[in-house]
Amino acid sequence: MRIDTARAARHTLGILAQRDCLTLLSHLIVDDSSGVEFDKERYSSALKLLEGAGLARDGRASADAVAAVLAHCRDEVRDLDNANQAPAGAPQIRGLGVKNRRIVTIPSNPAARRELFGWILSDVLVALPYSEREITIILSAIHDDPALLRRCLVDEGYLDRDPGRGLYYLPQG
User: Fold this and answer.
1) Residue 161 belongs to what H/E stretch?
2) Which residue, of 82, 108, 133, is where some domain finishes?
3) In what order do the strands lie in the sheet with 160-162?
4) Tens-digit pLDDT profile for residues 95-109
5) For the segment 16-53, what is each residue's pLDDT rounded down to a tens digit?
6) CB atoms < 10 A from the CB of 54, how many?
7) With 60 as the cut, is the pLDDT of residue 81 above it?
8) 77 with 8, same domain?
9) Predicted pLDDT at 154
10) What are phi and psi of 146, to 5 degrees?
11) Number of domains in the chain
12) Which 3 state secondary structure label does DSSP give 157?
């Protein structure tokens, strides 16, 4: 579950943001808890958090284990950052709302719409003509409302539709 691992990464980073946890972890890595200057309750609480996040085990920590956990957190944060980018191959278009690599809003700016629809025709709908079912399946890979996107392409003249055969194709001329 991507959400669970992302939540765990945020939780781990939150634990490391706590001064007691970071201080204790650094002492555990060098195997010297003698320099930790807080009471037993704070020590126990910080250790419990570190162990729960997989940063320590049985009151000990290794630099390799911590590095692996932090690398995982880095990858999760990177994945979350990428989730708010356009679908793979799509141009960076101002006003294009995206979430989880899917288009969620179509830009209102005519130039941005032309750029988006041009990309769809050149990179997504590459083997026209398509049946209505085929075009819906293809557009659903990049947008939650493929019918809306299909209607926009037809209404704005990027595609024509043969109602008798239910085919979508590039306009003639």
Assistant:
1) strand 160-162
2) 82
3) 130-131, 167-169, 160-162
4) 677 666 678 788 888
5) 777 888 888 888 887 766 666 778 888 888 888 888 88
6) 15
7) no
8) yes
9) 95
10) -65, -30
11) 2
12) coil
- From residue 27, alpha-carbon distances to 102, 116, 120 in Å are 44, 53, 55
Look at residue 89 and tell me if it is in a domain: no
Q: Using an 8 Å Cβ cutoff, are 143 and 149 in contact? A: yes
Residue 87 falls inside a structural domain: no
Residues spanned by the domain of 162: 97-169
CB 101 within 8 A of CB 111: no
> Model's pTM, two decimal places?
0.50
- Count CB-CB contacts under 10 A for residue 63: 9
**Cβ proximity of 105 and 140 under 8 Å:** no
Answer whether 55's CB lies under 8 Å from 61's CB. Answer: yes
Instruction: Assess whether 75 and 132 both reside in one domain.
Output: no
Using alpha carbons, list the distances in angstroms from residue 48 to 19, 42, 52, 58, 151: 14, 10, 6, 10, 56
7 plus 57 within the same structural domain: yes
